[in-house]
Amino acid sequence: MPSDTLVQEPAARPPDAAAPPPGIISVQGLSKTYAGGFQALKNVDLEIRRGEIFALLGPNGAGKTTLISAICGLINPTTGRILADGHDVVRDFRAARKKIGLVPQEISIDMFETVWATVSFSRGVFGKPPDPAHIEKVLKDLSLWDKKDAKLLALSGGMKRRVMIAKALSHEPQILFLDEPTAGVDVELRRGMWDMVRGLRASGVTIILTTHYIEEAEEMADRVGVIDKGQIILVEEKTALMKKLGKKQLSLELVEPLARLPEALAGYDLGLENDGRRLVYAFDTQGERTGVTRLLRDLDALGLRFTDMDTKQSSLEEIFVSLVRKTP
Amino acid sequence: MNLHAIRAIYLFEMARAWRTLFQTIVSPVLTTTLYFVVFGAAIGSRMTEIDGVAFGAFIIPGLIMLSILTQSVSNASFGIYFPKFTGTIYEILSAPISAVEIVISYVGAAATKSVILGLIILVTARVFVPYEIAHPAAMLAFLVLTAVSFSLFGFIIGIWADNFEKLQFIPMLVITPLTFLGGSFYSIDMLPEFWRTVSLFNPVVYLISGFRWSFFGSGDVSIGISLAMTLGFLALCLIVIWRIFETGYRLKA
């Protein structure tokens, strides 16, 4: 059994205000090839910063769950190394895993157990002495307290998912993995979960979530990583990403509908919507000239009048789709 | 050592036995009672003594072994198969718990249940037939050793099985026949020469023989060989389990 915890401690860093804090999760050159020959991860490098909410986005089968499974010890990496708070997750698995809580995508709970028993069980399995006060707090935070003696099979789907989260939080982890936490969860409950995740971040927990719902990443994440075909194709601050890749849309509601775009406007990236009642102009916010002023002047010259105007930032989803399409 | 984890899993498994009390304790006790009524009381009264022991008493060690073997295997295999089936195994695999600790908790719980069951049957048997135990300490030691060995064996089956048929296959088609043919109800000396030789390839013969020795002071084979064979089987199971965790077989991709 590995016991050389001291060797795993990160080297002392000279005081340097500009240096980013050492990553709480550090994935280095990670590859995973399954027995059938399918390569799910290809040489992945990833640093997760302490205390952030990191959203991992990617289409189905991109490798999101494989990456999480490798960090949490559910699969054996083919090559590469993973450190969790400085501890190698294979060689020093005890120290590493104590810091990590995992909420998998599938609801996997022992249906015949009570909520209280299963959450207490999780705490024990992670090597912590019983602490009814902590379990009580976790259950109350997740609005499960009045169900504590109910059997899991009697709970609704949303409650079961919250039980999964309660189990992951039972041992007070510093790092929480949420694999598709709000898949199949109704809107109200989703909002509740987002609040809970923010609360956890405020208490110092680092959160890594995978999601299809771009809205979720947009709402929650500090940074976004995009994975596709087993490769991390981008890691960026969410705001910077949206600014860098974000396009803005200017929508003009016309007084008189147009049958087609006037020849004079051919130089603009324009579209007609809503039976010609809406003129849509897409422009790059990072461009030297957005062309907005010129467009408005030209429209005025053509005698086109409008009743309303609106600008909209393109969503992370649109950015994401354009990114994934680009990769070969 | 993650003692909290061992405790949590052990108590969870024991609680499962309590929930399924009928399946784990009542049903084997009932089955064994039927054996005693039929073979001990009804037929046994017309049978001659074997090695100076009344037939009713002679079958006690064999019957206990029959229950211990089948229950150890089914309990331990189910204990580890079920989390794999429901997916809850993710938690065990992601926890700061080593292979040794996983085995201690699951196998320990299964073996505990078997030993308790064995002792209950022993007491139940007293209602039907009088008997004395020549070497009580050795009897207990054999009971525990067998329960642990076959719980380990069951654990292996539980990991190997990827459907319910496979889970049932070994207990039904291997353990039960080997136990019946392993001298539960007879001494292998009663068999013709050829079949006695064949029987010596049945590992269960050594278990039952050793266990019977602890009751009556004599067995089909010498106690030393019985003990060596039991320990050998234990060692074999440990090696297989060590390899399973080393390679992640059927547990980790």
TrEMBL record, chain A:
Region (Disordered) location: 1-22
Transferase among keywords: no
Pfam family membership, one: ABC_tran
PANTHER family reported for this sequence: ABC TRANSPORTER ATP-BINDING PROTEIN
Source species: Amphiplicatus metriothermophilus
CDD domains, A to Z: ABC_DR_subfamily_A
Keywords, alphabetical: ATP-binding, Nucleotide-binding, Transport
Protein name (Swiss-Prot/TrEMBL): ABC-2 type transport system ATP-binding protein
Signal peptide, first to last residue: none
Domain of life: Bacteria
Entry keyword Aminoacyl-tRNA synthetase: no
Domain ABC transporter positions: 25-254
From TrEMBL, chain B:
Species the sequence originates in: Amphiplicatus metriothermophilus
Name of the protein described by the UniProt record: Transport permease protein
Superkingdom as given in the UniProt entry: Bacteria
GO MF term list: ABC-type transporter activity
Membrane topology: Multi-pass membrane protein
Subcellular location field: Cell inner membrane; Membrane
An annotated GO cellular component: ATP-binding cassette (ABC) transporter complex
Keywords on record: Cell membrane, Membrane, Transmembrane, Transmembrane helix, Transport
All residue ranges annotated as the ABC transmembrane type-2 domain in the record: 19-248
InterPro entries (alphabetical): ABC-2_transport_permease, ABC2_TM, ABC2_TM_bact-type, ABC_2_transport
